[in-house]
Design goal:
The structure is a single chain. This protein has 737 residues and is an alpha+beta fold. The radius of gyration is 33 Å and the shape is elongated. The longest helix is centred in the C-terminal third of the chain and has 36 residues. The chain is built from 26 helices and 26 strands. The strands form 5 sheets. A 7-stranded mixed beta sheet has the order 14-26-25-24-15-22-23, with helices on both faces. The structure holds adenosine-5'-diphosphate and magnesium ion. The site of adenosine-5'-diphosphate has 21 residues, from α15, α17, β18, β19 and β20.
């Protein structure tokens, strides 16, 4: 036996080499993905710091060694780079601050629009050549100047910060382009010469870019608050029993151990355990499953779920940030802030894009001058190049889609731990499934007991139930239940050991008891000749022995989850090859595979062998997913590209897997893969869109075929359309995409 590990500790998170702390910082002042990579670089340059900055969520996730550095140093570093950072406040305060900022932006935009409108309107008489209707230059100067320096101050500030930090962002392009147009026009006006002025270009670009930012940040907020709205499902007030009286208190006042009452139609205020009453509860906000769940004495209830008909008395077990709902929201927010591998490409491109565009704008101006065009024409075309090339849509393409995709998943009961998993899940082409608890319900029942000569069924169950005391395996639970049902007392044991995927052993009345698969007993030199009955052969079989004496067999049967065959068919239709890897016997495995519609299966596999098989598939070029119930499957889950835990949120499973399926149903697995594909499709559309704008726009602008005002509008609209396209994912429905 190579694996001698107790049942659960093998799921513990990996030990860290150094003590480390993690913090999230709210970042402000970023205008594009180049800013995000710039801040990332600055933070990562600090000793023992690893940071990722997400442009879309405006958050930095920083892992650091608290012994060498504190959050103040991190914030200081961000400030030095020209941006602002702070420790984020509670969600409602953050929302209020964001709303106030957006109102201020809106006011500024309206003023800019009012000042710019006459300048744009003035282009009409200009095109019609009705010079007598045209605004005098000094009036244009008066209208354009506040737009340039008051409304446009943010671009100057952003450009200055970024240049001082040694980089160049889109603010540099906007500030430079509009300043050139404004300065040239101002010079013409002040010198009283007869040349054209381009105030409408500088003012319109600033106004349009500001509008784009407004729409974009509004859409981004919509995407990021979707998940936080879940928290609002908790009622504000709850009824608790205190000092023998029933009283209404704010939810925040409930402490673990308090007894609270949930009436029909009420939302559950905090996590708890039912101590009286029966009802059914709608838990769709946790699991995405709309059918109500029956709750009786001892059942767990979750904050935010909705009680249908009965009245429940419950004892609070977790409140505030400890509730399952709060944990989910935290998890999803973390995932939304993480970076998908595909985004690194966009980041790298936008970092070199701005300097390249600056060079190209200079070349454009030089080219036009050399071709004999006037200074004004050369300038205007260079400005158009600067403006159309702003790479902000590029920076939004990936994070917004990931943000919406993860949020959408959470609502369907698919919890994705990080963006990388969301990106990869859609590419899975080989999927390994565990049998017990994954394909089946994971609640086996003892259906037959066969005692060896000289022993009774009672003896077999008594020994087996005693040995299983130390195990949390579904088989162990079934055997303990059986002992209880037969009224068989359970003796004490010593030196318990669990052999993952094989069985258990312990000392019982001075003898060494073993219980497990036939292979497990055979490997310990125990020969089993008593064959189990025909009916039992296709079931899960475990054998019990005391020292070298076989006592007999226990046959268990576990029902296939009702949706399993349909889910397997759907996965196969999606082009995913499905294989079952199980530690159970050949006969039992064949039976289950057949019922589920799975062609490929391997039986009698130890956990390490499952992991090896997965490694082998990966090294032959497959993207491998592994689905398990979190018991005994940790090595295989860890070996796969994307791991899925199934089973309504056991805490261990949530911790280990990349994706947690809150619904105990393999359909959710197919949905998770489809959601990933839909998200990735959005990312690709967005990236194409962003590139398309920039690459098509630049040559047009350089050739003088793009008015700077149109360039400003196109630039603003490209960000808006990318974000809106991502938001479409919210309407995604499993199966129809
Ligand atoms: P699966 O691959 O179906 O999840 P496991 O790897 O958990 O199965 O276990 C494989 C086999 O090992 C079981 O079918 C059973 O024969 C034996 N086994 C594992 N754990 C136990 C246990 N606690 N008690 C008895 N038998 C066990
Ligand atoms: Mg298992």
């Amino acid at each position: 036996m190579d694996a001698t590990v107790p049942d659960l500790p093998d799921l513990a998170p990996p030990a860290n080499e150094a003590p480390c702390a993690a913090a999230d910082l709210a970042i402000s002042g970023m205008t594009c993905a180049a800013c995000a990579s710039r801040i990332e670089k600055v933070l990562n340059r600090l000793p023992r710091v690893s940071a990722t900055v997400n442009f879309a969520t405006e958050r930095a996730h920083v892992v650091f060694d608290p012994a060498t550095i504190g959050p103040e140093r991190l914030i200081e570093a961000v400030r030095k780079a020209g941006y602002d950072a702070r420790v984020p406040a509670a969600a409602p305060a953050e929302d209020a601050a964001a709303a106030a900022a957006s109102r201020a932006d809106m006011r500024q935009f309206l003023i800019a629009a009012i000042l710019t409108a006459p300048l744009l309107a003035h282009m009409i008489p200009m095109l019609l050549e009705r010079h007598e209707w045209m605004l005098p230059n000094w009036l244009q100067l008066a209208l354009a100047t506040p737009v340039q320096f008051w409304v446009g101050a943010r671009f100057y500030a952003g450009a200055w910060h970024s240049l001082r930090g040694g980089g160049a962002n889109m603010d540099v392009l906007i500030a430079l382009g509009t300043s050139a147009a404004w300065a040239y026009s101002a010079a013409v006006t002040l010198m009283g010469s007869s040349g054209h002025v381009y105030f409408e270009a500088s003012a319109a670009i600033i106004t349009l870019v500001l509008l784009g930012k407004l729409l974009e940040s509004r859409a981004r907020r919509r995407a990021s608050t979707a998940i936080r709205e879940l928290i609002k499902l908790q009622p504000a007030q709850a009824r608790i029993e205190r000092d023998d009286a029933l009283m209404e208190v704010p939810v925040a006042a409930i402490r673990p151990g308090d007894v609270f009452i949930v009436r029909a139609g009420d939302s559950v205020p905090v996590d708890g355990e039912v101590i009286e009453g029966a009802s059914s509860i709608d838990e769709s906000m946790l699991t995405g499953e709309s059918r109500a769940v029956a709750k009786r004495l001892g059942a767990r209830v979750f904050a935010g779920s909705v009680n249908a008909d009965g009245r429940l008395r419950c004892r609070a077990t977790a409140v505030g940030a400890d509730t399952a709902l709060a944990a989910i929201v935290r998890l999803v927010e973390q995932a939304q802030g993480s970076k998908a591998p595909i985004q690194r490409l966009a980041d790298r491109i936008s970092a070199v894009f701005v300097p390249a565009v600056l060079v190209f704008a200079v070349l454009t101006a030089t080219g036009w001058l050399m071709a004999g065009a006037g200074f004004a024409t050369a300038l205007v075309n260079a400005v158009a190049v600067l403006v159309i090339a702003c790479p902000c849509a590029l920076g939004l393409a990936t994070p917004t889609a990931i943000m919406v995709g993860t949020g959408r998943g959470a609502r369907a009961g698919v919890l994705v731990k990080n963006a990388a998993a969301l990106e990869l899940a859609g590419r899975i082409d080989w999927l390994a499934l565990d049998k017990t608890g994954t394909l089946t319900e994971g609640q086996p029942a003892v259906i037959e007991v066969v005692a060896a000569a000289g022993y009774s069924e009672h003896d077999v169950i008594a020994v087996a139930a005693a040995l299983e005391q130390g195990s949390s395996h579904p088989i162990a639970q079934a055997i303990r239940r059986e002992a209880q049902a037969r009224g068989i007392p359970v003796a004490a044991i010593e030196d318990f050991q669990s052999h993952a995927g094989a069985g258990v052993q312990a000392r019982l009345n001075g003898k060494l008891g073993r219980l497990g698969s036939a292979e497990f007993l055979a490997s310990n030199g125990i020969a089993l000749d008593q064959a189990p009955s025909e009916r039992a052969a296709a079931r899960t079989l475990v054998a019990a022995a005391l020292d070298a004496d076989p006592l007999g067999w226990i046959a268990l049967s576990d029902r296939l989850r009702a949706s399993t065959p349909a889910a397997i068919a759907r996965l196969r239709a999606m082009g995913v090859e499905v294989a079952m890897l199980t530690g159970d016997s050949e006969a039992s495995a064949r039976e289950a595979a057949h019922a589920a519609g799975i062609m490929t299966f391997v039986a009698r596999m130890l956990p390490a062998a499952k992991a090896q098989e997965i490694e082998r598939k990966r090294s032959s070029g497959h993207v491998v997913g592994m689905v398990g119930d979190g018991i005994n499957d940790a090595p295989a889950l860890a070996a796969s590209d994307v791991s899925f835990a199934i089973g309504a949120g056991t805490d261990v499973a949530i911790q280990t897997a990349d994706v947690t399926l809150m619904r105990s149903d393999l359909m959710a697995l197919a949905e998770a893969i489809e959601l990933s594909r839909a998200t990735l499709r959005k990312v690709r559309q967005n990236l194409f869109f962003a590139f398309f704008y920039n690459t098509l726009g630049i040559p047009l602008a350089a050739l003088g075929m793009l008015n700077p005002v149109v360039a400003g509008a196109a630039m603003a609209m490209s960000s808006v359309s990318v974000v809106s396209n991502s938001l479409l994912l919210r309407r995604w429905r499993g199966g129809s995409s």
